[in-house]
Amino acid sequence: MRYEGQIYRPPGEWRSYLLQCTIGCSHNKCTFCGMYKTKKFRVRPMKEIIEDIAMAREYYGPENVDKVFLCDGDAIVMRQAHLLQILEALYAAFPHLRQVTVYAGTRSTMTKSQEQLIELRQAGLTRAYLGVESGWDELLKKVNKGVTSEQMLQAAALLKNAGIDLWVTVILGLAGPGEPSKKHVEETIRVLNRMQANHVSCLSYMPEPNSPMYQDVKEGRFQMITPREYLEETRALVAGLNYGPFHFTSNHASNYLPLKGTLPDDREKFLSMIDNALGGKQRIRSEYSRAL
Predict the structure, then answer these.
(1) Which of 48, 199, 232, 239 shows its CA 20 to 30 Å from the CA of 276?
(2) pLDDT one-digit tens code per residue, 6-37
(3) What's the sign of the alpha-carbon dihedral 46, 49, 53, 55?
(4) Could you please report the per-residue DSSP string of 215-229?
(5) In this predicted model, what pLDDT tens digit does every residue of 180-231 receive, in sequence order?
């Protein structure tokens, strides 16, 4: 397959064929993220994308692809006609294809009308990953997310109303310790309870060398929270999310305590595991074993 630069995908897409439709991220200004800092955003020529689909069919075989993830960071921003052409080509190439997914930036999602998103779902776009990171507007502004919590709620509603499976991510530790940590979690709970995503995944903030926040950590302008504070943020989140049922995970490699299940069904089990970890009765991941 032909790829430009390093390719990123959600953990759940490890079995998916990765089709690079855009290079980089259309926003690419978040201070915590170093994923696309070396790339200048652009949309790949349709001729190349369609050629890649044909190459993948030949390489994998038409019967052996059932999941596809559209890379890079914000493929939903592409022209509607081009996205529809890509979906048509994928489903024609792979008869057992059942899932096509994409990262969906808030602003990019909101460039689509409700009717256009419904059209994409009918054409086979099944899931969108929305990076919420935090529900606290002050923190979103500080990390240069480029959108407000209200805008994220609007984008999420557009996706959900189109029938697209909504998977959101939040970043534990993004605000630092103390009162900012509490405010980050409180506001994130507030937004997630309104958003009611089908899936919520937590990862823990780790400084990426290509990101502005890395320099803040290195030079002492940003203080990382402790493993105990990560557990406390996780506990507050698990206890505070009051809708459901929905799929909840904090089993990313960056997390100290892997959790995976359904809320509210697994709430008491999760809280017990977290309390045991806080009390030293359950081991957590070592710093050495954590990664992004």
Answers:
(1) 199
(2) 899 998 899 999 999 999 999 999 999 999 98
(3) positive
(4) HHHHTTSSPPPPHHH
(5) 999 999 999 999 999 999 999 999 999 999 899 999 999 999 999 999 999 9
